[in-house]
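In response to the reviewer comment on reproducibility (Comment 2.3), we provide here a single inverse folding case reported in full, input and output, so that an independent group could reproduce the run without further information from us. The structure tokens appear first.
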């Protein structure tokens, strides 16, 4: 499990590195911060998968969905996205960011993953029902929800200190819409 988490983190680092600009020093500083946010989410996911003793196929699916969510959340802020969304089978229509508005990629990630992770980690008997993320109450799912809330709240506060509050709020809301679409 740990090795899979590290491999996925490495892949995400490579994907995010495609967004580097000509301003190398600024871009590398930004990339370090982007990677740190992604690593926080992947570490949380790794801890929850391990804590809930998910089997290998379940864990692989959870990591794959989280990785795709992370990438799709960053796409609106990429100048040249690498992935063609049409390549993803059975992906429902996704909400689109308003091109006239500014978005903060890390806040979109926050909104998307804070929505997707509890849905992915829901007890299997609740998966695919209207109550998937609302009405499950086990020690494991409550632990996941608390962990997601802690990471999400910390990152939200950090982004509000660095980026205009309206941009952060709009970005988190868009990320939550994206996360809901991915869970459908």
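Designed residues, in position order:
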């Amino acid at each position: 499990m740990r090795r899979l988490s590290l491999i996925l983190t490495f892949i995400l680092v490579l994907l995010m590195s495609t967004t580097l600009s000509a301003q190398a020093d600024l871009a590398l500083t930004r990339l370090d911060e982007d990677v740190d946010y992604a690593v926080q989410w992947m570490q949380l996911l790794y801890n929850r998968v391990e804590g809930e003793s998910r089997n290998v196929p379940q864990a692989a699916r959870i990591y794959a969905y989280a990785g795709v969510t992370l990438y799709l959340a960053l796409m609106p802020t990429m100048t040249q996205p690498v992935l063609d969304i049409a390549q993803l089978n059975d992906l429902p229509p996704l909400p689109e960011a308003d091109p006239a508005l500014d978005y903060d990629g890390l806040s979109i990630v926050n909104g998307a993953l804070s929505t997707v992770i509890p849905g992915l980690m829901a007890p299997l008997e609740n998966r695919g029902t209207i109550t998937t993320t609302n009405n499950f109450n086990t020690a494991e799912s409550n632990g996941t929800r608390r962990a997601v809330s802690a990471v999400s709240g910390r990152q939200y506060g950090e982004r509000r200190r660095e980026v205009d509050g309206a941009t952060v709020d709009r970005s988190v809301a868009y990320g939550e819409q994206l996360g809901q679409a991915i869970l459908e």
